[in-house]
Here is the input.
Amino acid sequence: MEDSRIALPIGTTLDRFIKKKQDEFQFATGELSQLLRDIALAGKVVNREINKAGLINIIGPIGAQNVQGEDQQKLDVLANIRFIRALTKGGEACAIVSEEDEEITDLENDGKYVIAIDPLDGSSNIDVNVSVGTIFSIYRRFTPVGTPITKEDVLQKGAEQVAAGYLLYGSSTMLVYTTGHGVNGFTYEPSLGEYFLSHPDMTIPEDGKVYSVNEGGYKSFPKEAKDYIEYCKDSKFTARYIGSLVADFHRNILKGGIYMYPPTSSSPSGKLRLLYECNALAFIVEQAGGVASDGKRRILEIEPDELHQRVPLYIGSKAMVEKAISYYS
Ligand code: P6P
Here is the structure.
């Protein structure tokens, strides 16, 4: 779905892109633009630490102290600290829900945006040098600025997002995001410290032949999921499962495909979290022309009950997801 107002050329810097897109919105006040910059900055810092991980072995509590005298932490906790620090300094976010924190972090400022974030999804893959990612959603706060943050501010359905995105720390580091006017991908050039527009107006192929699911859980999948997987095998589709949601999702949005995490005996509601994993990717995939469902409901219409709520996830190319969920009806 293209925002036809301004088509910016490949190689446009993220800063210039954000500024040009903001100029298109008559009432834009620059706060969302600044928030996106703050997230991009934190992504640069996390990217640097991930790339060092193999060298200085930041793969778990190692008892060492870093130069700030901080105990060395597991990378996902470190990433959480970096994002919270960047968002706190930026001042545009008033609250953060993070996979790493049981409760809401109230930043006690006059910011009007709420962030739901998985600072480092798939972090167990760091040890084996597999791509990992950050996933984030941005909402307007629900209650008036200046009042304490409430659960109402964060338990908003995905359709209320004003922006969403992910960072993929892979063979190159990318930032992909949407503000509801199409999806754009930026590739980070570490030697320049800049993100450059590399994937303008990303659209997911309407159909595909790649399915991503951990078939180790097959025996405890619901019949509908098993039937769809058998359909994929009968259709001679290709199975690809990286074990890192952002990496599988990114491949599928570029090449076409479906990612599934059905309910299993160990995760009866699925494994993935609604607020800071599924909603963000659902917003992005719909903006790119795809579909995201829990098997019965559009992900973006699910009313959250709790911060760390899990839901089953079927997400990707429209024809593939619609085929998968047709087994539920
Ligand atoms: P399983 C990583 O822990 C994650 O949240 C996703 O990135 C990934 O797709 C999934 O869980 C892997 O889970 O149960 O297949 O190991």
Residues 121-122, 214, 243-245, 271 surround 6-O-phosphono-alpha-D-fructofuranose (CB under 6 Å). The first helix runs from residue 14 to 23. The chain has a mean pLDDT of 90. Residues 59 and 74 are 6 Å apart (CA to CA).
